[in-house]
Amino acid sequence: MKKIVILGSSGSIGTKALDIIYNMKDDICIKGLAVDSNIEILKLQIKKFKPSVVSVSNSVESHNLKKWCIFNDIEVSIYSGPSGLERLVEMPDVDMVLVAIVGAVGLKSVIAAIKSKKNIAIANKETLVMAGSYIMRLAAENGISILPIDSEHSAIFQCCISEKKSQIKKIVLTASGGPFYKYYKKNFSQITIREALNHPTWKMGKKITIDSATLMNKGLEAIEASVLFGVPIEKVEIIMHPQSILHSMVEYVDGSVIAQLSNPDMRLPIQYALTYPERLPSSVKPLNLNEVGKLEFFKPDFNKFPCLKLSYYAAKKGFTMPSAMNAANEVAVEAFLNEEIKFTDIAEIVEKTMYAHTISKSLSLDSFIEADFWARHYARKLID
Predict the structure, then answer these.
(1) Cβ pair 280, 24 in contact under 8 A
(2) For residues 141 and 132, what is the distance between their CA atoms, to the nearest angstrom?
(3) CA 299 from centre of chain
(4) pLDDT-derived band at 106, boundaries 50, 70, 90
(5) Measured in whole angstroms, how far is the alpha carbon of residue 270 from the centre of its chain?
(6) Lowest-confidence pick of 109-118, 148-157, 161-170, 236-245
(7) How far apart are the C-alpha atoms of 48 and 39, rounded to whole Å?
(8) Cβ(13)–Cβ(204) under 8 Å?
(9) Which residues have a Cβ under 8 Å from the Cβ of 207 and sit 6 or more positions away?
(10) Is the Cβ–Cβ distance between 127 and 36 less than 8 Å?
């Protein structure tokens, strides 16, 4: 039986993973769960999955949860804060850590899990954007696998399993385009939070939904693909595909193109990561191309969506530039959601932060963390 810890169990990915695991009780069990602040959902999950350890964001939440557990006669160890995440993933009887927390906060827990020789199922692209070279080197040194959960990277992974990396000509990432790919650019400054959170295909958390609206999410995914599959960013192409049926494809040197298609349902890539290398039956609706009718593809507009251009620039510069870009974007997105800035200000803040950043060519973890800290401070000053 595979024993799993989920970081971010109350979010979209975490809850879907738990739904899958509930129907695979004979194959997978939950050893630990972590949430930020959604304690009520965590309480339900504790009752249903009976983890031995949980982690919450702070000591106040931890204290309140302990009282609830005592009142309900539930035995579970409770940790808190960043160190709680690390203690959770370091448990000796865990096979896999599913990382579904959003943002740079996932970095240290991913590193702790790798050093503890746990395989990683990752839905936290920011960790690989921030410190991809360090993470992949550490994974190789510890002999562990990093299995992608994003639908696009899962698709690429499946297209590459039996092929040699040297035979890849290019990777093609598909993008739904978010809610605004047909908008006129002149109207972008008037986009509201409600409009930006109304994704036409996927139901996700607020941060990733805004990233999908600016297409920063696709830029982050391009960097992630470059890191995960060991290809230069020049070999990663983005193509708009509003139906979200073809999840990504790989072109090989002989001209063959291998793609993965399915209905847009995150349960499929999550289950594949959890059960790899096995494929098990799922509850996902089978794809019927007769019902789909047509598949459309368009070139992305890098001028309309400057975050795409910034992502490729960051990847080409390398070293600490992706870390700075990611940090500035996290600050800008939060400011937009707090109604401090306009939609178009997100890309402007990221761009100004990147151009002010002095790249460190050290590949140490400290250099990536320092770049992240500096960029957050600089971006915040631009907003204030």
Answers:
(1) yes
(2) 14
(3) 24
(4) confident
(5) 12
(6) 161-170
(7) 14
(8) no
(9) 102, 103, 330, 333, 334, 337
(10) no
- Closest by CA to 180, choosing from 198, 162, 167, is 198
Is the bond preceding 322 in cis, omega lying within 30 degrees of 0? Answer: no
Distance CA 54, CA 74 (A): 12
Tokens of 201: 């295909």
Q: What is the DSSP letter of 189?
A: G
Average pLDDT score over residue span 329-344: 96
What's the Cα-to-Cα distance from 174 to each of 147, 238, 299, rounded to whole Å? 19, 6, 10
DSSP code for 287: P
What pLDDT does 287 receive?
Answer: 96
205: exposed, middle or buried (Cβ count in 10 Å: 0-12, 13-18, 19+): middle
Distance CA 9, CA 38 (A): 9
Please answer whether residues 329 and 346 qualify as being in contact, where contact means their C-beta atoms are separated by less than 8 angstroms: yes
- The confidence band for 272, taking pLDDT boundaries of 50, 70 and 90, is very high
Q: Position of tokens 């368009």?
A: 298
Residue 283: CB atoms within 10 Å: 11
Q: What is residue 151's three-state secondary structure?
A: helix
**Tokens 């350890």 belong to which residue?**
53
Q: How far is CA 69 from CA 15, 50, 72, 83, 91, in A?
A: 21, 11, 5, 21, 21
pTM of the model: 0.92
Question: The tokens 């978010």 sit on which residue?
Answer: 178
Placement of tokens 């093609």 in the chain: 172
What are the structure tokens assigned to 291, written together?
């019902």
Residue type present at position 217: N
Residue with tokens 């009142």: 71
In order, the DSSP letters of 346-376 are HHHHHHHHHHH-------SHHHHHHHHHHHH
State the Cα–Cα distance between residues 245 and 242, nearest whole angstrom.
Answer: 8
